[in-house]
Structures are given as C-alpha cells and as structure tokens.
C-alpha cells in the first residue's frame, strides 16, 4: 500500500446524493420531530429464516431513543424508548418468569396494547463483532397499530420493555453522513 492509498476515501455504501433511512450508520445525523438526532450504535436482530432487522441507538443530546427498521414488503419504521418493566405492571416480571408469556393485553398511560407477535431471536451490537445473544420478544400494538410496546426476555429472569410508535419514512429528513 502506497502513502497515497492511506488518504483515499473508500466508497460509501450509499448514494451520497440521495441518502435514505436504510443507509444510516454510526455518526450520521438526521432531523426527526423538530430535533436533530445522531446515530450512536447499530444493532442487528436475526429472527431466523434469513430475516434480519436493524435498530439504531440515537440521541438528540438529551434523550436516547431507538429507531427500528424492518424491510418486509415495505419499509417499516418505529421510534421507541426504554421504560422500566414494573411501570407496566408491578407483577409483570413474576408473571413472565412463571408463565413464560405476557398477558394478552396491557394498558399503559391510557393506551391498551394487544399482543401481536412472539418471536425468539438473536441480537448483536455490530460494533462489537459477531457475538450474538439469544432472547425472546413479545410485540404489542394498540388497535390502530400506531402505538407499540415491546417486552424482551434476555435471561431466565432478565426482562426489558420499550414503548413508542410507528413512523413514516418521510418523517426523517436531512440525513447527513458522519463528518469523521
């Protein structure tokens, strides 16, 4: 490798004149809901049968959220935030541990969520290499399919919850690559 090869920029994995949500990478910034957000980490989920989804840990400087991208027949996006599982129901972790499944519906902050899907999967932080963790996920939606709730089981007794909403691709704008 010559000295000038060190300074050559490698080709980006996206069209720099038309950066899309699915092109996001660590360090990218974008506008959403009147704030500027920066991608801090990328997580990948393997749901089996060669089906993968991505999640981006994003921050606006004061809040941390998670932008999930699922490419099925069309691009499906959601923005979520972590919440304490006990705020959903103070006995929920015991119910999950004993019955190995959540209730069919959960009400939180005036919204009723109905269980839509249960899926085992594998998770990994792309920056940390190929170490995958096994987990189980339960997805809930309200009647309109806008408000979402997810409960995940990581170990026998370790549970996490997140809450958010589905969004449209046009709600994310002004995507810029990392300046680094």
Automatic annotation (TrEMBL):
Residues of the DUF4178 domain: 26-168
Full protein name: DUF4178 domain-containing protein
Protein source organism: Plebeiibacterium sediminum
């Amino acid at each position: 490798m010559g000295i000038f090869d060190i300074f050559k920029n490698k080709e980006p994995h996206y069209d720099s004149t038309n950066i899309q949500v699915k092109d996001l990478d660590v360090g990218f910034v974008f506008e959403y809901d009147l704030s500027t957000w920066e991608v801090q980490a990328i997580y990948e989920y393997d749901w089996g049968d060669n089906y993968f989804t991505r999640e981006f840990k994003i921050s606006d400087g004061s809040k941390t959220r998670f932008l999930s991208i699922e490419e099925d027949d069309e691009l499906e996006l959601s923005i979520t935030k972590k919440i304490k599982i006990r705020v959903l129901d103070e006995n929920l972790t015991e119910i999950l541990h004993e019955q190995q499944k959540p209730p069919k519906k959960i009400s939180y902050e005036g919204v009723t969520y109905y269980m839509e899907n249960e899926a085992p999967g594998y998770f990994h932080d792309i920056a940390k290499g190929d170490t995958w963790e096994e987990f189980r996920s339960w997805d809930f939606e309200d009647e309109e399919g806008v408000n979402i709730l997810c409960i995940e089981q990581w170990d026998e007794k370790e549970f996490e919850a997140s809450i958010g909403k589905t969004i449209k691709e046009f709600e994310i704008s002004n995507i810029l690559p990392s300046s680094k």
